[in-house]
Amino acid sequence: MTIRIVRTRWTDHQHGIRSVRDRVYIQEQQIPASEEWDDAADHAAHYVIALEGDTVIGCIRLFNDGHFGRLAVLPEYRASGIGSQLVGAIKTLAEELGMPALLASAQCSAMNFYWQLGFYNDSNFYLDAGIPHLDIALPLSAADLPARYGNAYRAGQDSQLHTLTKPCERLGFLLTQLCQQPAVVELALYDPENPDWHHHLLISALVKYLRQGRQRFVRLIIRHDNHIADLPLFTMARRLDSRVAVMVNSEVAMTQGVLGRNCWLAEGKSRPGLDNGHFIANAADARSTRTVQQALTERFNSGAPSEELRLRYL
After folding, report:
1. Which residues pair with 58 in a beta bridge?
2. pLDDT band (50, 70, 90) for residue 312
3. Are 197 and 129 a contacting pair, CB within 8 Å?
4. How many CB atoms are closer than 10 A to CB 311?
5. CB 124: neighbour CB atoms within 10 A?
6. What confidence category does residue 271 fall into, taking pLDDT thresholds of 50, 70 and 90?
7. For the N-acetyltransferase domain, which residue ranges apply (predicted)?
8. What local confidence, expressed as pLDDT, does residue 142 receive?
9. Mean pLDDT of all residues belonging to the chain
10. Residue 97, C-beta contacts closer than 8 angstroms, at least 6 positions apart
């Protein structure tokens, strides 16, 4: 496979770029077409594309203020490093144009990709097209990076204690951790029926996490298993029953979890339940993570397999 990385404009490769973005953003990520297409923005941007022969297989765009976006690579080419090449190409272009930094709005599930390329991020989660995002920046000159950018949520590096009060923040945090491929994923759910645990982005991230490693395993400890069998998280657990274990333990007093050896999250000192309380989380606290994991292991070992899931499986 010979891939070429080429600078272009929207008008020169509009059909191929549309095809890639339609497949990645509209079909795969279910972003409404009305939110994807903006003729004025596309005509104003510098584009870099990846070509196999004459076929566009990836794209990215850069504006004159240093903002970039619409990075997309067709699924069958994503293990080939094309995304990194596209970002590298606009970095070179931005440097040639004298831009001080590359700036973007990044999906939380892609944060590990950007961290590995040297990007920094701020700590404020927000929704764009219904997907949690973070602002990211890569300095290109000697100018200091604005204070709001750092290593927030990066496993083993961000020692700040974060308070997560909104569903967007909790989902965003989980996505940033799962994309870093943690060695351990264990969650105790006080309210397993809560819709936040069944968000399609979280389910997709868990499935992707499990499929990226043969030794990956997820443990779920739930307070009850009443009327849960048809909920998306547990439908996924049944489908991947060799990789996901679900135990029921009525002594689960709060929602908490560990994602890797350094990351934990838990409900704050308010009413139990994801909707009612807030969460606190840390991505670089090995000691507290061990403490939480020990508690989860005790709950898991003293629990019982879900009867409702077993009956539905049969």
Report:
1. 50, 73
2. low
3. no
4. 10
5. 12
6. very low
7. 1-141
8. 75
9. 93
10. 64
238, two tokens? 């049944």
Residue count of the chain: 314
- For the chain, the distance separating the N- and C-terminal CA atoms, rounded to the nearest angstrom, is 46
pLDDT value for 309: 87
pLDDT at 126 over 80: yes
**Pick among 3.40.630.30, 3.40.50.261, 3.90.320.10, 2.20.25.420: CATH of 3-139:** 3.40.630.30
Query: Position 269: which residue type?
Result: K
Shortest CA distance to 163 belongs to which of 270, 288, 6, 289?
270
Does the 162-313 domain belong in CATH 3.30.870.10? yes
Q: What's residue 17's pLDDT?
A: 96
Rounded CA-CA distance 62/46 in Å is 5
DSSP state string for 86-143: HHHHHHHHHHHTT-SEEEEEEEGGGHHHHHHTT-EE-S--EEETTEEEEEEEEE-SSS
Residue with tokens 């670089």: 284
CA pseudo-torsion sign 21, 22, 28, 29: positive
The residue ranking higher by pLDDT, 274 or 145, is 145
The structure's pTM equals 0.92
Q: What Cα–Cα distance (Å) separates residue 27 from each residue in 13, 109, 207?
A: 20, 17, 18
CA dist 304 and 21 (Å) reads: 46
Q: Cα-atom radius of gyration of the chain, to the nearest Å? A: 21
Tokens 């953003």 belong to 25
Every domain range in the chain assigned CATH 3.40.630.30? 3-139
**One-letter amino acid of 168:** C
